Amino acid sequence: MKNISILGATGSIGTQTLDVIRHDSESFKLLAISAYRNFEKIIEIINEFKPELVVMIDESAYNKVLEYCKENNITTEVKLGYEALNEVATYNETDIVVTSVVGMIGLIPTLKAIESGKDIALANKETLVVAGEIVTKEAEKYGVNILPVDSEHGAIFQCLQGNKYEDINKILLTASGGPFRGKNFDELNNVTLSDALNHPKWNMGKKITIDSATLMNKGLEVIEAHWLFKVNYEKIQVLVHPQSIVHSMVQYKDGSVIAQLGPTDMRLPIQYALNYPVRKEAIATPIDFFSIPNLHFEKPDMETFKCLKFAYEAGKSGGIMPAVLNSANEYAVDLFLNSKIKFTKIQELIEDALNHFENVNNINAHTIINKSNEVTEYLKGKNIF
């Protein structure tokens, strides 16, 4: 049996991770979880899975969960605040930490988990985007596995089994194209929040769904792939694949291409990561190939969707620039989600930040956090509204 902790248990990935655990309860035990404010769902999780530790970020939600546990004589320990996330990440006999929180918040807990010898099922792509070199070096130092949970990186990881990284000629990273595939800039200028949240294929959290609509999600995945699979950016090619059946491919130096195909169900890569290196009975409904009319691939439009181009540029620059990219994106997306800016303003703010800040190459986790805060403060002072 593997003991699991989840950072971000009530979000999209966290919820689907619980489904995987539920599907194979003889193989997994849930020990520790965190959430921001969704106390109703956390109480349901406590009743079903009986975790030993729960951390809530929101104080009001913390008080509700704590009161519920006391009134019902539940022994689950309940703690408050961001620093307590580190306790979830390093908890006792945990074998695998699923990092499914969104944004920079995942960096320090992930590093703490690695230092305590936990394998990482990584859904928090920002951790590798802003601190890929640091995180991968720490993982090597402490002998832990970083198991990708993103459908694309999980696909690449599977395509690499039995092969050598040095034999990779190219990583072919697929993208659905999001809800605005084929639109020009003028058309994007008038899209609504509801339009942007209407993803044609995947059910994801709001922030990731907006990132998919701008193609920033794919840009972040390019940087993540660079660190996970030790390939240069010139060897990472994005393909728009609207059917989302081929989740990614690897082309080897002999010209062979190995692809991983599957349903649009995040439980599949989660299940593979949690059980690695063992495969278990399917939790997701297998593909019916006779129902697929075609498989289509096309180049991404990086002049209209500039976020993908910005990500390549920031990744190649290295140093602090991926953190600048990520922080600017987080701030801009939050503004859009709160209906304070237009959709096209997201990439304008990111470009502004990338042009404003100079690169710094000698970085650590605290440098990254400080610079990210600087980026947010800079953009707050831009008189955007």
Report on the architecture of this protein.
By secondary structure, this protein is an alpha/beta fold. The protein folds into 3 domains: 2-148, Rossmann fold (3-Layer(aba) Sandwich); 156-263 and 301-314, no CATH class; 318-385, RNA polymerase sigma factor, region 2, helix turn helix motif (Rna Polymerase Sigma Factor, Chain: A), CATH 1.10.1740. Helix content is 45%, strand content 15%. The chain has 16 helices and 11 strands. It has helices spanning 12-23, 39-49, 59-71, 85-89, 107-115, 125-142, 151-159, 185-188, 193-196, 206-214, 216-229, 267-275, 306-317, 321-337, 345-356, 365-380, and strands at 2-7, 28-35, 53-56, 77-80, 96-99, 119-122, 146-148, 168-175, 236-240, 246-252, 257-261. Strands 4-3-2-1-5-6-7 form a 7-stranded parallel β-sheet, with helices on both faces. A 4-stranded mixed β-sheet has the order 9-8-10-11, with helices on one face. Helix 14 packs across helix 16. The model has no long low-confidence stretch (mean pLDDT 96).
